Amino acid sequence: MPTVLRTVRHRRKPGDRLSYSGVFDAKMPTSCRRPAQDRPFRTWEGTETRMSDLPPRDKKGRFTTRGGVAAVATASIVAVGSVSAGGGTAASLDSAASQALKGKTSGKKSAQKGRQSEAWQRLGWRQLKKTAKRELKCGPHSFGEVQRFFLRHPCVDLDRMFVTVDDGSGNKLAVSVAWVKMPKASEAADLKRLVDKDGTGNVSLLGEGQHGERFTGEDYDSRLDRKLVVIAESARVAGRPSEATLETAVEIAVEFPAP
């Protein structure tokens, strides 16, 4: 029986049986019969392959560079190129998302300080027109269950504002904000719970003729600050602003402090 030199490498993974590959340094008799070409064997990485998938050997038993190896090398290069191209696209998308998030965060900070024009500019938008009005009673300027709530719990005062902004992409949108001040923090909390429910009415917002004609409640946000309830809605004026743009508008507007 002929003798073949083999080396053995040992590496044990948790839960994996020790397997061998390579050539022994020590001389030991082994069979010269080639294994069945379609017999699978398991590698250390836990993947299976077949002897027929390997490239051919030369007379000394070494793998040649023809066929399989060349194909594998080509596939590897293509795969690496694809990952690089995809990675660049993903990086661009991540960068754009990061910039949008950064603009919204800084816009909210400006809004909380009462810097309204600056808040829109942080998003790359421009404020076009602004109208504000103050009322001493909320009942006459509300509807639905919200109006009945004000009959039982009169507000202290009501401030309303209407602005139009340009989003920098040729689209215009309207944003209306109402600040309702209640005598007690508990009443303000009850009011917010009521207006946040669908079909319960709302404060009549500036900038709309009939209730729900322009501001339908689809793009809506509210905020509670002790005795103060802030309500904001947005709507399209011109162009085709995206839903994300309309939602961002109310997220910024609801942060404005009361006049």
Protein architecture, described:
It contains 5 helices and 11 strands; from the N terminus they run E-E-E-E-H-H-E-E-H-E-E-H-E-E-E-H. By secondary structure, the chain is of the alpha+beta class. Helix 1 (68-112) runs antiparallel to helix 2 and helix 1 (68-112) runs parallel beside helix 5. The chain is elongated, with a radius of gyration of 35 Å. It starts with a strand and ends in a 6-residue tail after the last helix.
Write the SSE topology.
Elements: E1 3-7, E2 24-29, E3 40-42, E4 48-50, H1 68-112, H2 116-122, E5 126-135, E6 142-143, H3 145-152, E7 157-166, E8 172-181, H4 185-195, E9 202-203, E10 220-225, E11 228-238, H5 243-253
Antiparallel strand pairs: 1-2, 3-4, 5-7, 6-9, 7-8, 8-11, 10-11
Helix pairs in contact: 1-2, 1-5
Side by side, the strands of the main sheet go: 5-7-8-11-10
**Overall pLDDT level:** 75
DSSP helix fraction:
25-40%
Total E-strand runs: 11
Q: Indicate the proportion of strand residues.
A: 25-35%
Q: Give me the Rg, rounded.
A: 35 Å
Structure at a glance:
The chain has 259 residues and is α+β, with helices and mostly antiparallel strands.
